[in-house]
Every structure is written in structure tokens, then in C-alpha cells.
Amino acid sequence: QDAIDRKEKRSETFKTAVHGLETGISALKTEELGRRAPQWVRDNLVTMCMRCKEPFNAFVRRRHHCRACGYVVCARCSDYRAELQYDGNRLNRVCQECYVFLTGHVVLEDREGKHKGILEKGAAEVSGRSLLCGSLQLLDKNGKGGTRGWFVIPQDDPLVLYVYAAPQDVRAHTSIPLLGYQVKDLPQGDSRHLFQLVQSRQVYTFVADTEELKRRWMKAMARSAAGITPTEEDEDADS
């Protein structure tokens, strides 16, 4: 009975831990964890730890892969060892959530109980249920430099544009409420496909990869800026 209770506890813990990132990740089923080698998430798809959400920067340089679930995690979140059946039951580096599931040991943490903030929506999870998502470049105020990121307009929050640094990040670094903005087309300059979001003195200038993508983003943002939310009729028409 004690063994049954421990197994049920592990299953519930792991179901909570792995809920989320779906697009681009082949998640292992609970019963396969540790028994089959996972598909590793590529380093260049994330800019922050997929568990604690701390960014990888000059201070947090090392990226590690959990050998059980394949997530990219920081040193602190992967400072655990568990026996993995697919590797001859040898001890391997795993993340905290997989450690709890595989060993049944309880790890106390101060982050427990915190609610998920508005920016703490995983890019892959949101992209899988989005009106439009993809890579854009957001220029600085001078219109010269800028950063490329992963932009998403979610189906369940269609009036907001979420900005991620990478398509598998577990937290957006900013969001832009689209309601009330004007979408402005700009002439093509230096082979760049430019458009803007304008409201009063606030201006965002974007660069799309192609003219077709530019038009799609302009249309989606214009609908959101006008407060037009998607309906079943729209979805049927698109399909």
C-alpha cells in the first residue's frame, strides 16, 4: 500500500510539472519517464531556464539538459541525480520535478504556491493556441538597431501581443496591449518589410521576414487593435 501511495503521489506531481510546453517538444508519457531517452530541447530555442524561468546571461551561463524529460535548465534546477532505466540505472543529472517523480523524495522550495503571472505563459503553449505567432524584429526608437524575438497573439487573450526572446521560452519578457493602436504600413526600406503600431507618442516599429508575413501581422494586429475577437465563423472561414 505504501508503494501504491508513493506512485500515485509521483504521478500527480509530475502531471503538474510537465503541463505546458507542447509545440516543438515530444513530451514523454509519465510511464516512460526514465525508461526511454527524451528528445532534448535545443539550446538555441530557449533564453531562460525552463523550470525556474531565470534568464541565461553573464551570471547564469551554463545550460544543462535534464536527462529524464529533456528540458533545458540552469545548474540550480538540475542539481539532482536519479537512476534512469534507459541508461542502465546509472545516476544522471535531472531537474527537480523529474527527481521528485522518479525518487519519491520531497523537495521544499520557496516558489511553491505562487500564482502564474500574466507573462508566465510558455511560448510553446501559447503558440499552439494562437491567432498568429512567429518571428519579428522590433526596432529601437532610432529605427536602426533592434532585437529579434518570438511574437504571439493568443486565442484566449487576443487583444495582447506577447513578446518572447525565443520560441520555447517559458516566460514572456514583455506584452503590448493592442487595443486602441493604429497599424501603419511603411514603405520598404533596405529590402526590409516595415510596419508600425502607433498610439499617441508610443510607436513600435517591426520588421517582418517577407511581405506576405508583414500583411498577415498587420491584419491580425489591426483586428485586435479594433477590439475584434475571433469567432467560430472566422475560424471556419480560415479553414
TrEMBL record:
Keywords: Cytoplasm, Cytoskeleton, Guanine-nucleotide releasing factor, Metal-binding, Phosphoprotein, Repeat, Zinc, Zinc-finger. SMART domains: FYVE, PH. PROSITE patterns: PH_DOMAIN, ZF_FYVE. Residues 43-103 form the FYVE-type domain. Residues 129-226 form the PH domain. One of its GO terms (biological process) is filopodium assembly. This is FGD2 protein. It comes from Pluvianellus socialis (Magellanic plover).
